[in-house]
Design brief:
Keywords: Membrane, Transmembrane, Transmembrane helix. The protein is an all-alpha fold. Helices cover about 65% and strands about 0% of the residues. The chain has a single domain, classed as Up-down Bundle (Vanadium-containing Chloroperoxidase, domain 1). β1 and β2 form a beta hairpin. α5 packs antiparallel against α6, α5 packs antiparallel against α8 and α6 runs parallel beside α8.
């Protein structure tokens, strides 16, 4: 007859097996963990800034250009009642107030996940720097938006660069870079693809609803990516210097 083995006894007392270890806090993904990304961060930031400056120079030559006009005219032919409603809601879902909520939720999650406040130095700084940079450049370039006649939403500021595109690109890039240490390779690929599609879709929505030219959007996406990568690179550099001191 089979018997279930009993736990060993010591001095007549049952000895309990060791308890399973409790969950430990997630390791803090210090910026030094991005060491393998350092060169790529520098390249991405430089590429983004070069693309942005190119769009700026294009607009400096003329407030409108054949490419912008062609894309804008084409976007008018794509309009349907369903798409109008969809893109109007989508683009306003990334206005300043909703975006602020998304940033605060992401900050709370990452601080909880990593048991560290270091995301404040990446996500927080990036999402403050991006809109401030956009406001400064908008007033320097002073580019008018497309005609009021075809706008589906109202905007009062200047056109270049697209603030929605800049902020969304900066937010998506920073989400990816902040989540990077905690993800598997498959997770990184999936998140990068999803966030990339989101940023491009929001950028396209600004053209569709008639408040931006194509070069505004391309310049904004490039600027947002550049700012996010530059902030992460700066945080990494500061961290490594602190480790050496």
């Amino acid at each position: 007859m089979n018997h279930t083995p009993e736990s060993p006894r010591t001095g007549g007392a049952r000895v309990r097996p060791p308890a399973a270890p409790k969950d430990t806090p997630a390791p803090t993904p210090a910026p030094g963990e991005l060491a393998g990304l350092r060169a790529r961060l520098a390249r991405a930031s430089l590429t983004g800034f070069l693309a942005f400056v190119t769009m700026w120079l294009v607009n400096a030559q003329s407030l409108t250009n054949p490419v912008d006009n062609a894309v804008w005219q084409a976007s008018l032919t794509w309009r349907t009642g369903t798409l109008d409603a969809f893109f109007s809601v989508l683009t306003q879902a990334f206005n300043t107030l909703p975006m602020t909520i998304y940033v605060l939720v992401a900050l709370g999650f990452f601080i909880w996940r990593y048991r560290s406040a270091w995301p404040l130095a990446t996500l927080g700084v990036t999402m403050i720097l991006a809109p401030l940079t956009v406001t400064l450049i908008k007033n320097l370039v002073d580019r008018p938006r497309p005609s009021l006649t075809h706008r589906l939403v109202e905007e009062l500021t200047f056109s270049f660069p697209s603030g929605h595109s800049t902020s969304t690109a900066a937010f998506c890039a920073t989400l990816f870079l902040t989540a990077y240490p905690a993800l598997t390779q498959r997770g990184r690929r999936a998140l990068r693809a999803g966030l990339g599609v989101l940023a491009v879709t929001i950028g396209f929505s600004r053209i569709y609803v008639g408040v931006h030219w194509a070069t505004d959007v391309v310049g904004g996406l490039a600027l947002g990516l550049a700012i996010a990568c530059l902030v992460h690179l700066a945080v990494f550099t500061a961290y490594t210097r602190n480790q050496k001191s």
